[in-house]
Amino acid sequence: MSIIKNNDPTQTKSWKELNQHFNKIKYQSLTDLFKEEPNRLEYLSFDMGNFYFDFSKNHLTKKTLSLFASLAKEMGLIDAKNALFQGQKINKTEDRAVLHTALRNIKKKLISLDGEELMPFVFAELDKMKDFSMKLHEGKHLGYTSKRIKNIVNIGIGGSDLGPNMVCEALKPYWIKGITPHFISNVDASHIDPLLQKLNPETTLFIIASKTFTTQETMTNAITARNWFIDHASEKGIDKHFVAVSTNSQKVSEFGIDLQNMFKFWDWVGGRYSLWSTIGLSIVCTIGYDHFIDLLKGAEKMDEHFLNSPLESNAPTLMAFIGIWYNNFFKTQTQVILPYDQRLAHFSKYLQQADMESNGKSTDRNGDQVKYETGQIVWGEPGTNGQHAFYQLIHQGTKIVPCDFIAAALPAHNKTDHHDKLMANFIAQTEALMKGKNIKSVKSELEQQGMSDEEIKAILPFKVFEGNRPTSTILIDKLSPENLGSLIALYEHKIFVQGFIWNIFSFDQWGVELGKQLAGNILNEIKAGEVHKSHDPSTQKMIKKYLSHKILIDTREC
């Protein structure tokens, strides 16, 4: 039985005190906070191994942290963390444990579920991935014409795509020579067709990643890939070129994949937390097994930090508090992720699913409608691209947009001039967002440019901006597999803490089901060429419009 409490956070003593505290602090600027607390960096920044965290440019004081610590105690956060790691079935709506942390339990601590020890199963699949990837890299697993595999195509969607795709892109310097990964997710044939046209079936391996092996988008793309392979090669070669990551052996076998080429995972692994499992097969094939293990070790380090570090220096917990502070008290609603590293180009997209699918809920753990904000709208773009796109709104817009800045001090290249400029921008932006530019400094600057009083008066209001925009900064020594594992786990735990404090279930996603159901019904109507009157007028009209165009598609296929 779960020991997680089902408390409305807004009814706690600590939340009410946080509200009072907010009313006192909300008009204080960040620059004033630094003047009042010259030592605030001492308690709002810290090192954790290869990571340096700076939370000082947020609207926080010692009082804020103390109140959030009290809130965590009132809500029972310590018990909740233990419940997560011990395999209690905290995903109540699906009656499941949430044990992605067991997948990176490299130290082999005992973890059991329903009286069964889990780690033998986890390590059996790890061994299977190791064996398969080594055969691939050593040229022992060859294509049907005895040529080496050069291209790995991962076909999945959601967690079966976003995590592996993000990791492979982030760890490009670690790619095995001669191996190139590709990721197909969208059911739009415009995604898979151009790729297939470039591939050689003799040297391509397809990884079909679907928990149920029934996911519409994934299986449509998988069948297209299978048909393409048969058209260009032979059905007999499928066992050399197709593998599956799934829980459904029957469907895998029906597809034509040898069960020896099926990699298993379990219902206690949620899709958006599954890159640590066999869903990471594409990662293993791309960067090698040893580097994959380093990825897991990095996540395990963050797990231990999250479990054992005190609140005042617990990075995931502090980030969760900061998110709640802005979302629920400052009413910001949004969170932007700004990695100053092109290798992390897919990181914000990955976090969109991890965060918004987890905490985009309006029903609390009691089954009641929440009366407060949950979730955050997560978005972002690598620096410096974002500076030339949406930073204008962050600096001078009417909305407060809390920012997470992420960078690696050591690049993977030797272009020092490039990296110096990147890091200068990374550091400068947090200072600019905090300080802004007041009337006095703008006027002085314009006078130095030789502008007249009249010209200054005309342009002055447009060049002033108040600053006081919050940022959190994460500096990593380098973007290694281990550090990337820690970074991902950092945000996983942040999401968990926020969901727990908001009293919602973070590990289900019922909201995506209705669209799937309706799509199935509409697809049947499209195939039959008829429109049911059960739809609203707008939907009926749209189906009819599509059917009027569909004849052109059908004609083209003929």
Descriptive terms for the model:
558 residues, alpha/beta, Rossmann fold, 3 domains, six-stranded mixed sheet, five-stranded parallel sheet, 13 strands, 49% helix, 11% strand, globular
Topology:
Elements: H1 13-25, H2 30-36, H3 40-44, E1 45-48, E2 51-54, H4 62-75, H5 77-86, E3 112-113, E4 116-117, H6 119-137, E5 151-155, H7 162-170, E6 180-184, H8 189-198, E7 204-209, H9 216-232, H10 238-241, E8 242-246, H11 249-255, E9 262-264, H12 281-287, H13 289-308, H14 315-329, E10 334-339, H15 347-359, E11 377-380, H16 391-396, E12 403-410, H17 416-435, H18 439-448, H19 453-463, E13 471-478, H20 481-501, H21 513-528, H22 537-557
Parallel strand pairs: 5-6, 5-7, 7-8, 8-9, 10-11, 10-12, 12-13
Antiparallel strand pairs: 1-2, 2-13, 3-4
Explain this structure to me?
The chain has helices at residues 13-25, 30-36, 40-44, 62-75, 77-86, 119-137, 162-170, 189-198, 216-232, 238-241, 249-255, 281-287, 289-308, 315-329, 347-359, 391-396, 416-435, 439-448, 453-463, 481-501, 513-528, 537-557; strands spanning 45-48, 51-54, 112-113, 116-117, 151-155, 180-184, 204-209, 242-246, 262-264, 334-339, 377-380, 403-410, 471-478. It contains 22 helices and 13 strands. It is of the alpha/beta class. Strand 10, helix 15 and strand 11 (377-380) form a beta-alpha-beta unit. Helix 7 (162-170) runs parallel beside helix 12 and helix 14 (315-329) packs across helix 20. The longest helix is centred in the C-terminal third of the chain and has 21 residues, at 481-501. Strands 1-2-13-12-10-11 form a six-stranded mixed β-sheet, sandwiched between helices. Strands 6-5-7-8-9 form a five-stranded parallel β-sheet, with helices on both faces. A two-stranded antiparallel sheet has the order 3-4.
